[in-house]
Write a structure and sequence with these properties.
two-stranded antiparallel ribbon; 184 residues; disordered C terminus; alpha+beta; 63% helix
Length: 184
């Protein structure tokens, strides 16, 4: 399979669902590690929980704004590309901090060490999946910038950029409607 086929849009939802599972597993393991009294709660435990919840919220934003009409107004391929790129850095931070915490607890408590190593492995998998989704998002954003509409005229085909639209809110009988006007 060529590399370019791995960057197709159809992989994005599948990867998001795998990310949800891996991130949920990391959060559950981190809560389990917090329940162990010896060693006490550390920065690595709390960081993996907070980053996991943040990542789940970002994935929910992306899935809802792509699928639900109610959230469609917040759909932005540029925001998706930026957020998914930042996710890679955040999960790298979780790998480093949780790895340092796991290495400190390995001599004290073997169960906390094992759970710490599993959290680090979940963070590595999540980082790799985030990098894959980020590259897909960047490709999607670049493709959307280079879309060209072909319009037919009487004599020949003219290729031009599609117009940019700005949506104005127009109140009518309590419901919101949107009308598009061309931005010059």
């Amino acid at each position: 399979m060529p590399f370019s086929r791995l960057l197709e849009e159809r992989w994005k939802d599948f990867l998001h669902y795998i990310q949800i599972g891996v991130i949920s597993l990391a959060i559950i393991l981190s809560f389990g590690r917090l329940a162990i009294r010896n060693p006490p709660a550390s920065r690595g435990n709390v960081l993996s929980i907070s980053m996991g919840i943040k990542s789940l919220m970002i994935i929910a934003y992306q899935l809802l704004s792509e699928r639900k009409q109610r959230f469609r107004r917040w759909h932005s391929l540029k925001a998706f590309a930026i957020l998914n790129t930042m996710e890679v850095v955040f999960w790298l931070t979780v790998v480093v901090v949780s790895g340092m915490g796991a290495s400190r607890t390995c001599g004290i408590n073997t169960s906390a060490c094992a759970i710490g190593v599993l959290v680090v492995l979940c963070a590595i998998v999540s980082m790799v999946l985030s990098a894959w989704v980020a590259s897909i998002s960047i490709v999607m954003f670049r493709r959307s910038k280079t879309l060209v509409a072909t319009t037919t005229t009487e004599h020949s085909q003219v290729t031009e950029r599609p117009p940019r639209y700005h949506f104005d809110s127009v109140p009518s009988k309590g419901a919101r409607e949107y009308r598009a006007r061309e931005v010059v």
